[in-house]
Write a structure and sequence with these properties.
The complex is a heterodimer of chains A (259) and B (259). With 259 residues, chain A is of the alpha+beta class. Helices cover 53% and strands 6% of the residues of chain A. Chain A has helices at 12-24, 49-52, 72-82, 93-128, 132-139, 145-156, 161-181, 194-203, 206-209, 218-229, 231-237; strands spanning 3-7, 29-32, 61-64, 67-69. Chain B is globular and about 50 Å long. In chain B, 43% of the residues are buried. Classes of the chains: A alpha+beta (259), B alpha+beta (259).
């Protein structure tokens, strides 16, 4: 099995997958790419139905024997499948259900909100300085029209007040969810798991943009410190190539079309 | 076993059908508790006492509640003996999860939007307006309240409906292409991905008959018929109580009404 991980800066889904790889103790060739410059759609990364229509949007790609795998939670499950005992997933079926339902909430409810806020703050300025031809060179390679539209919205900086308010509400909901969950435990599932990585990767970058969502939540604060102290997460953060790795977002998942 | 396993479900269709067919395929006996979605039984106090989220399907096993249909499917696969519905290969398993997410989060919302717009919505609006308003007010999750209000009153914009149609046509193309490359949706064996997808795709030859038929999508038709031929499908669809469950007879060559 030959693996290459094409990852962005260690934040969001790239952070989850880098840390999950290190937790599993597996070897992969690490290739840093600039997601916000559309590098997931270029170079040596094969473009398949699954990468074209990844619900996660611009995330890392794990190339395994020539097949590109995407969507961070499912890459985490894959790594756990090939490295049993990695601790990424609990062994008990009910706890696994609980973990998958938890992660589903994070990817469907929280991630679109974080992506909208992070991209507006940090990606819009990067795309704004590109001329039309340079921007078109990125989006011309993107197969899914709805993903191309999210790139255009990011470049234009069009985040409506309503969309911003809904996104901020999601972050508040997520930080409260973690605070409540940790009333009787150190980690989301009791023992450390992929749920901690996925939750941390989307929540942590919001400290800078929405400090109010973190105020008065001591268990959340202690958990953020605990996750950041894990050797796998520290090693993931060492892969950073920029001064502010938390800012390394690119157009992500869309907000649920049913609201 | 059946004493402590109860599935709360509506018709064998979309989310309800996923755990129903999974349980029947595994040969797991369970108590079937029919919840009438169109009478809003899922938001009434009796049901909220069981599932406070007010969503269907939900499953109770050994006194523990589970919701989120796709996460329930994986639980059923892992917690009970019976024929394997997840492939052994880790990459195949990743693909099963990817396709379930594609149906759940990318294609599913478009299919349900058109279904509500032309089928279920008009039916529900025949009810007493006061009763409808009260039914919406009882919905516990705010995001579900928003979605139901849209669905019940048909508050979809032309743009939203056009986007849903666009996605369904792309979805048909992607599934056709994929099934031209392998026997089943995610890998070379029948899996949870096929069960998940069949529960919405069985309707495509009816709702999108111009685009999904023997001439234009022979691989999809071959795949739908192969699933329909499974005894578990007959058993599952016999649990339906409305004319919706007769739609499946299109695979017998019968003419069926969409709604």
């Amino acid at each position: 099995m030959v693996m290459t991980l094409y990852h962005g800066e260690p934040t969001g889904p790239s952070l989850t997958v880098l840390a999950a790889l290190f937790e599993a103790g597996l070897d992969a060739d690490l290739q840093a790419i600039d997601l916000a410059m559309g590098e997931r759609h270029a170079g040596a990364i094969p473009q398949t139905t699954e990468t074209d229509y990844s619900v996660e949007g611009e995330g890392p790609v794990l190339l395994v024997d020539g097949e590109p795998l995407c969507d961070s939670v499912f890459i985490g499950c894959y790594l756990d499948d090939v490295a049993p005992g990695s601790g990424l997933r609990p062994a008990d079926p009910y706890q696994r259900w609980e973990m998958m339902a938890w992660c589903r909430w994070m990817i469907e409810r929280l991630a679109p909100g974080v992506a909208a806020l992070a991209n507006r703050a940090w990606t819009t300025p990067r795309l704004g300085v590109l001329d039309d031809a340079a921007f078109a060179a990125i989006t011309d390679r993107i197969a899914a029209q709805d993903l191309r539209e999210r790139w255009q919205e990011t470049r234009d900086g069009t985040l409506s007040d309503e969309h911003r308010a809904a996104s901020e509400a999601r972050v508040h909901e997520a930080t409260k969810k973690v605070e409540d969950r940790l009333a009787d435990r150190d980690w989301i599932m009791g023992d450390f798991s992929l749920a901690d990585l996925e939750s941390y990767a989307w929540i942590a970058p919001m400290r800078e943009l929405l400090p109010d969502a973190f105020a008065g939540k001591p268990r959340l604060a202690a958990w953020l410190t605990r996750v950041a102290a894990r050797p796998s997460v520290r090693r993931a953060l060492m892969q950073a190539r920029t001064k502010h790795p938390a800012h390394g977002f690119a157009p992500g998942p869309e907000i649920n079309r049913w609201g | 076993m059946s004493d402590d396993l109860t599935l709360y479900h509506w018709e064998p269709n979309a989310n309800s059908g996923k755990p129903m067919l999974t349980l029947v395929e595994k040969g797991v006996p369970f108590n079937s508790h029919y919840i009438d979605l169109l009478a809003f039984d899922q938001h009434k106090p009796d049901y909220l006492a069981i599932n406070p989220m007010g969503t269907i399907p939900a499953m109770v096993h050994g006194g523990r509640l589970m919701n989120e249909s796709t996460a329930i499917m994986e639980y059923v696969e892992e917690a009970f003996p019976g024929p394997a519905l997840m492939p052994a290969d880790a990459r195949d398993r990743w693909r099963v999860r990817w396709w379930m997410k594609f149906f759940d989060q990318w294609l599913g919302p478009s299919l349900s939007m058109l279904g509500w717009n032309v089928g279920i919505g008009p039916k529900v609006r025949e009810r007493d307006p006061e009763e409808l308003k009260a039914a919406i007010d009882r919905i516990p999750l705010p995001e579900r309240r928003t979605a139901w209000r849209k669905a019940i009153y048909g508050l979809f914009s032309e743009e939203e409906l056009a986007e849903s149609t666009r996605r369904i046509l792309i979805g048909i193309d992607l599934v056709e292409k994929t099934l031209g490359e392998r026997a089943w949706l995610a890998c070379d064996s029948y899996s949870l991905a096929d069960i998940n997808a069949f529960n919405s795709a069985y309707f495509l030859p009816i709702s999108q008959s111009e685009h999904c038929n023997d001439e234009k999508t022979p691989h999809i038709m071959r795949w739908l018929r192969a699933i329909y031929a499974r005894p578990a499908v007959k058993t599952t669809w016999a649990m339906g109580r409305t004319a919706m469950s007769d739609r499946i007879k299109i695979f017998e060559g019968e003419e069926v009404k969409p709604w």
